[in-house]
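Subject: Sulfide:quinone oxidoreductase

B.,
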Amino acid sequence: MDIKKITDEVSVAPQLLPEEMAEVAAQGFRAIICNRPDGEAADQPTFEEVEAAAKAAGLQTRFLPIVSGKVRDEDAEDFGRALIELPGPVLAYCRTGTRSATLWSLSQAKHREPAAILAATKAAGYDMAGVVRRIVNGGKTPTDTGDAKFDVVIVGGGAAGIAVAASIKERKPGLSIAILDPADIHYYQPGWTMVGAGVFDAKTTARTMGSLIPNGVHWIKSAVAAFEPKDNAVILDGCRVVKYDRLVVCPGLKLDWHAVEGLVETLGKNGVTSNYRYDLAPYTWELVKGLREGRALFTQPPMPIKCAGAPQKAMYLSADHWFRTNRLKDIDVQFMNAGGVLFGVKDYVPALMEYVRKYDATLNFWNNLIAVDGAAKKATFRVSEPDKDARDVTVEFDMMHVCPPQTAPDFIRVSPLADAAGWVDVDQNTLRHKEYENIWSLGDVMNAPNAKTAAAARMQAPIVAENLVADIRGGAPRAMYNGYGSCPLTVEKGKIVLAEFGYGGALMPSFPKWIIDGTKPTRAAWILKEQILPPVYWKAMLRGKEWLAKPEKVTAG
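Prediction pasted inline below.
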C-alpha cells in the first residue's frame, strides 16, 4: 500500500486490494471511500469484493465512483458529506489517488485557505494545479469569463512593486500595467528601527497606497490566491482571473508570528515588542524609556529575514539610550541569535564588536526563540550548537524585542513559481524566472542569495524594468544584478556603520571613504539614513527616479 496522508483525518491511496483491508484497519483507519468505478481495468477488484473484506476488518465503506478527469461539483459535495458521516480517520482511494485528492481539495474549499489545500496535497505528492480555479471559487466550477488582461501584471504594491512599476513606465510609457495588492496603506519599513528608538514618528512611515501608485498604472485591490503560469494567468481571491503578457512577482515575505508558541498572545504587552510591525515599534520606545533595571532580550531567528541587521539595530539603539541615561549598568543586555555569527559580512564585525563591548551585551549564538510566556516573563530558546545535541533553555526577561521567523507567503510557496524552499526561483543575475521566461521577481520573495533589504529592491527595480522592456522589444537581458544590498547599522544615536555589499559578501560602497567609510561608525551615514534616504524612497525610488541605482549593463564578452 502507498498511503499518502493529507490531514490527520484524511489520507489517499492508489487502488486498494481486499487482502489489504486488515492492514488498513491496523493502521488506525476506520473507514474507506472508493472513488474508482468498477471495470476501469481488467486486474481491478470490484468494490463489492473490497467492501466485504473491509467490513470483515471492522471498516465502514462508501462507494463514490468518479470517471477519470470528470470530477463534478456535486461529486465534491458528496465526498465532503461522506467525510462528515463516516468515522475518521478515512482512507480514500482510486487508481492513483489523484481523484481522491481532488475530491478532498474541492470539498474543503469553503473551509480552508487555497494555499493550505494546495500545500497539503503537494506534500502528499498530488498537484492540484488543474483545479486551482475551482478551489479558489469555493469548490465550484467558475462561470466568470470577464477576465482582465494587461501587458504587465505586478504582484505586490510594496517598495519593490511600486518602484518597478514606475521604472517600467519610465522606459515604455504606453504599456498597460496593473499592480495587485489588497493593502490600503504602504509603509516605509526601514523607518521602523528609528521609530523604535524615538527618532521618527510612526505616522511619517505610512502613506495611502492610492497616493503612491504611478499615474496610468491600474491598482487592483485584491489578494492573489494562485498562479497559472502556463496560461499566463493570476487567480485572485474570489476566483477573478487576471491575464498578462509579462508578470513581475514581488509580494514581500511573510512574518510568521505564529511559529513561536505564545508570541501572538503577548505582543504589545508584558514587555514584548517588535520593530517589525508598524503598531509595535512605538511600544519598543515606550519600553526602552521605561526600563530602569533588569534583563533585555533581543532575538534573531534563522535566515533568511528582511534586513538581517534590524534585530541588533534595536539592541544598539536601546542600549545607547540606557548608556546615555546612566541605566546601562543595571540592565543585562542579551542578544539571542539563531545563527552562528554577529553579521554575515566579516568586514563590518570589528566595528560592531566595539559596540557590543561598549554596551556589555552578551552574544548568545545558536539560540532560536521557540516559545514565550508573556505573563511569566519567560522565553524559551532551542540551542542547536554544531556537533551537540539540541537543548531547550528558558530565560527570564523584563523586556524582549522579537524578530519573527520569516518565510515566503503561502500562495508563493505552493505555486509553480517556487523552488524547493518556497521562494520564487530566478536567475540571480537577470532576476528572470528559471522556467517561465515571461516572469521576473524582485524584493524579499525571490531566491537570489542577496540581503533582503529596501536598498536591494531599489537596485533591483530598474534591472527588472530594463530586462522586461528589452524582452518586449525582442532583445536579450540588458542589465545584471550584482547582489547589492545595504544595511545601515544604527550602532548609536547619531552614528551608523553603513554596510553595503553584494554577492559573496563583496564590499560595494556607494561613496568614497573620505565621505563615508562603511566599515566604521560615522555621523555622515546617520545623516544619510535620517534625513536623505526617506525622501529618496518617497520621491525617487517609488517614482522611477533611479538615484544610485542605474542598472549595470551586460557587456559583450
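The chain has 15 helices and 29 strands.

T.
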